[in-house]
Amino acid sequence: MKRRIYLRVPTKADEREFVAAAKASRALHGRWIDAPDTTEKFHAYIERIKTGNVVPLLVCEEASKSIVGVFNISNAIMGSFRSAYLGYYTFTGFERQGLMREGLRAVVKHAFGQMKLHRLEANIQPQNIASIALVRSAGFKLEGYSPKYLKIFGRWRDHERWAIVAD
Predict the structure, then answer these.
(1) Cα–Cα distance between 75 and 77 in angstroms, integer?
(2) Architecture of domain 5-165
(3) Which residues pair with 88 in a beta bridge?
(4) What is the pTM of this model?
(5) Ordered per-residue pLDDT tens for the chain, 167 residues
């Protein structure tokens, strides 16, 4: 099967495409995620990358080189735990094509391979059916429920805890 996507780290040069895609995707993202949709938010995102607390991976379409979506592996704890959190979102025009599914599989391979993690956890609002289907397709298992887990758009939101562990 021909590879349709590749992963790469974002750079300052991605600003125009990234911000435009995030703005165009506001309705798609709805109440799920607050993607960097302004120059200021994008610059803050790039600065956050420099802290080493997040490993950002853009999913790009092989044919067009367009940015399809984003995966952020954050708060990695090494030692005997070897775990991190996973956040992600796609951009309008690329949803429901399986590109993020391919991207997630590549991200999991990267996390367990290059990063040498043992566990990856995604916390998802229970009503976000598409996101739950995405992690389930990659082998994540439902582990629990976290009430008022994360503040998004000024409101504490409940989340389901989904995780995958290395073989």
Answers:
(1) 6
(2) 3-Layer(aba) Sandwich (3.40)
(3) 71
(4) 0.91
(5) 678 999 999 999 999 999 999 999 888 887 788 889 999 999 999 988 888 789 999 999 999 999 999 999 998 888 888 999 999 999 999 888 899 999 999 999 999 999 999 999 999 999 999 999 999 999 999 999 999 998 888 899 999 999 999 98
